[in-house]
What we know:
Blueprint: E1 4-7, H1 17-20, E2 26-29, H2 35-39, H3 50-56, E3 70-73, E4 79-81, E5 84-86, H4 92-95, E6 99-102, E7 107-110, H5 111-115, H6 126-131, H7 143-151, H8 154-172, H9 175-206, H10 235-246, H11 248-256, H12 266-290, E8 295-303, E9 309-319, E10 322-333, H13 338-352, E11 359-364, H14 368-371, H15 377-385, E12 391-393, H16 395-409, H17 411-428, H18 431-441, H19 453-465, H20 467-478, H21 483-502, H22 504-510, H23 524-538, H24 544-555, H25 561-573, H26 583-594, H27 596-604, H28 607-616
Parallel strand pairs: 2-3, 8-11, 11-12
Antiparallel strand pairs: 1-2, 4-5, 6-7, 8-9, 9-10
Helix pairs in contact: 9-10, 9-12, 9-27, 10-11, 12-26, 12-28, 16-17, 17-21, 18-20, 20-21, 23-24, 25-26
Amino acid sequence: MKRFLIPNKLKSNDVTENVSSVLDPSKIYFPCTSTTVVESIKPDSKQTNSDELLKLNVLDSSSTCDESAVQPVINFPRTVISGKHRCFQSSWYSKYPWLEYSITLNAVFCYYCRHFPPHLTVSQSHTEKDALINRGYSDWKNISNLTKKHENTSSHKNAVIKYNSWLSTKKTGSVSSQINQQVKDQIINNRETLTSIIRCILYCSRQDIGIREHKKINSTEDNPNWPCHDVNEGNFLEMIKLLSLENENFKTNFKSLPKNSKYTSPDIQNDLIKAASNLTLRKIVKEVNLGSNIFSLIVDEARDKSKIEQMSVCIRYVYDSKIKERFLGFIELNELNAQALCNGLILFLNNTGLDIGKCVSQSYDGASVMSGEFSSVQTKIRTLAKNPCPYIHCHAHRLNLVLVNVTQNVQEVGEIIGLLEAVFAFQSVSTLRHYAFFQETNFKISQHCDTRWVSKYKSIQFFKTHFGSILKVLNTFKESSKKREAAEAKGLILQFAKQFDENGEFYAVLGVLDQTSKEFLDCETLSGLFELLNEVQSYKVGFEELKKVIELIVVAPVSSASAERSFSTMRRVKTYLRSTMKSSRLNNFTLLSIEREISGQFMDNPSAVIDEFAVMKKRRLEFLL
């Protein structure tokens, strides 16, 4: 027997007023045209009794509150009650919309009380409770009295309230799920605010600028009138102020944070920098493991602004068919003997997550403690690596030594470099002289440095390009009223004239060694190796050993210039104003500054930094979804 549902709005008194707009009960039409058909399914003593029907769960009423009340409109079967044939009337549906009719039992039930049954009280009899809930009611003579009485009972009203609550829960979720959603929204809001804070931290780190004020005068948390503009609170907090002025949403979210959870304190700054630094190191280690799975060590030493010896550690490896030279960090040195340096290196690599057994070559300067044949750092590292791990004397240092020896032993070269240094000294002692040279050439004269030959190259190129302008300025100062200044200018002019006249043939010979020569440092072989490496990798395991050989060649470092460059960043970060900075903080700052490719990814999407920051220690606010 098929049932077809037709919408029917429930109307009731003030108790069911809230539910009438939501509940959508239905009417059921059956293809019954005669009383006999209906009476053939009417239960009697010869057929299954109502208790058995209940046990068999064959009631044709709604099974859950997700279904509408079952209200069929049929030729209802008649029964003799008090000498009269009586039957259920479909008009009662509109009067009592909570009624539902069971054709099988020829009885009615309360839709609300069936699905939200009350607890049986002392004043209630089992008959009253069972009438419209379990057994059904079929006394059509007294049904009006019963329905009126039932509709006003507290149990029925409570059932309606429970049904309304169920409908509300269905729309908005349970109380726990509503709380969970509220917590989730708060976490999203917290992460959004912290994202902007992290970007401010990363910006300062990547630009090598200070974060805090030089002396702590007041703070955001202590100042009720924040932001104020008469106190410099440091680059970081000033950026937070600027961001609040530019972004109203951030300003609202930031001010809504608890006073003890603004996440701008020095400790929080350190934690955020540490989180980003940790992720940077993990990414580098991951590249090593997924790439060549071998690396070379590049190490050098220098003294920072606090007179602390710092050892810079870099590695060279192949990833995605490209050579990568990455900075890992500084090691603070208390002793400078080979064993102490080696122990510091091994401990640092272990903490970073790199296996010394994967180190296949090493590059340092020529200091005996690093490069000695028997008990130096390079021999100890080779022993621990358990592979040949050759030591490569930094070619940049070797070239520097060669050039220094040349200038010491070839008089002409030494004299010309000395002359250029004399011109630099002449113009640097006076602002007027410096301005005169700059106005004529539009460039500053490069200063010389014995350990940085690029400065000598720049100086020679400068004189080569602006030789006429330099002589013009010197001729001007030759007529100076200051006798000493005029004498110095005349002497420099004479030196230029004498040298370039006597040694013209020598300088012509040196032109053959010009680095623009076609054969100078030919790079075709190296590029060919990378092309071969790409071809080999396409065959997967077919040329595995050849791939290892190529990677061993390209991983071998040429110089320790990467470590040298890290000292430039160290000096920009640890200035005289930040000379009390601890080594761990210095490490984190320089790592984020040097490895800009990786820290830039965190600038674009700081989610990983937030997750790392959240798990470092227990936080007052929630950040993990």
